[in-house]
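Problem 12. The chain below contains 210 residues. Write out its predicted structure in token notation.
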Amino acid sequence: MLIRKEDGAGETENSMTIRKIFIVNSMGLLTILKKMKQKEKEMRILMLGLDNAGKTTILKKFNGEDINTIEPTLGFNIKTLEHKEFKLNIWDVGGQKSLRSYWRNYFESTDGLIWVVDSADRRRLTDCKEELKGLLLEERLAGATLLVFANKQDLPGALSAEEIRDALDLESIKTHHWNIQWCSAVTGEKLLDGIDWIISDIASRIFTMD
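Solution.
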């Protein structure tokens, strides 16, 4: 077995040729995949948050589904939605503490991250902050657009978007484009504003003008 050195010593002419072909083919494949994604105007969005934050309710409400019979997500839900000119593949993953170690299984090829916060649950804001902080350090989420939904604004005592922003220390985030949007999954208020923002930001990064 030959071990490649930095100066190329140890490689035969055939192995160098094979390596060049492999690199060219790999680059060609990436170009093809990018063109396919560009043509389809497709985005992969991962929706996470602590349990009972309202992730599934948000997804169902946005899709025009009945929200009166929502059960805790014990695994994940996938919805493929058409919105404006874009195809959205949205992954809604359960937020129970026992499931959070599995979140990493869904990071690959994520264009946008929606982090849902229960604005009325003051007790778990520290936990919420730490989980989000850990996600933003993940290499496979590097560059992904971040939208924070300050959900459950219809409930009495819910913290404002500004208070959630400060509690999560969002202003310190320098590695991702981010925005926070107050909303109510139950009434649907401001959901569209948040979705439109994350789509616009993702599109500005991954799609080029023809």
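Discussion. Strands lie at 42-49, 76-83, 86-93, 112-118, 145-151, 178-182. Students who got a different answer should revisit the alignment rule from Section 12.3.
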